[in-house]
Amino acid sequence: MDDKTPGSVSEEPHSGYDRLEQQIAWYDKKSGESQRLYKNSKIAELVAAALVPLTASWFPVGAAIAGSFVLVLEGVQQLFQWNHNWITYRSTCEELRHEKYSYIGRSSEYEGATDEEAKRLLVDRVESLVSTEHSKWVARQESFARAHTKKNRPQGE
Questions:
Q1: Any domain includes 32
Q2: Of 8, 39, 91, 102, which residue is most buried, by most CB within 10 angstroms?
Q3: pLDDT in tens, 81-101
Q4: What residues contact residue 137 under an 8 Å CB cut-off, 6+ apart?
Q5: Structural domain that includes position 101
Q6: C-alpha–C-alpha distance, residues 97 and 70, integer Å
């Protein structure tokens, strides 16, 4: 059977559909990883924070270690931005899925487009979504670096 229906993926890789599927898989995986890392670090942080008052009177060194652990966990979370990455990667993944189903169903921007027009539009829209997310990520990393550079400068510079 020759699948020539609108939004068909029978002429891969020329339609850009394969790239779309790869990007959905990547963002889905990275979102899940970031979510797990963020939640696990926050749970460990909460447990360590709860140990501080519990151990302070009978094991002060343990309380100091737990308090230091909380500080380190929060610093690592701020450094790697797991919470932000989880949210932005999930958002981009869902936007890409929306694009996938719009393309397959020939709805929204794809309605009435020829196969060739739909393929070009798919590539443009997928690359635009990925590029926008990447640009935001770079800007956030640069902003983070600038903020920490300013904090670490000696006064008078």
A1: yes
A2: 102
A3: 999 999 999 999 999 999 999
A4: 88
A5: 17-151
A6: 37
Long-range contacts, stretch 114-119, CB < 8 angstroms, 24+ apart: 115/4, 115/6, 115/8, 118/6, 118/7, 119/14, 119/15, 119/16
Tell me, yes or no, whether 12 lies in a domain. no
Least reliable range by pLDDT among 20-29, 35-44, 135-144:
135-144
Residue 7 domain flag: no
46-55: long-range pairs with CB below 8 Å, 24+: 48/73
How many folded domains does the chain comprise? 1
Rounded to whole angstroms, the Cα distance separating 88 from 129 reads 12
pLDDT band at 142 (very low <50, low <70, confident <90, very high): confident
**CA pair distance 95, 91, nearest whole angstrom:** 6
Report yes or no on whether pTM surpasses 0.70: yes
* Spatial contact of 67 and 136, defined as CB atoms under 8 Å apart: no
Dihedral angle sign, alpha carbons of residues 108, 112, 115, 116:
negative
Residue 5 lies in a domain: no
The count of other CB atoms within 10 Å of the CB of residue 7 is 20
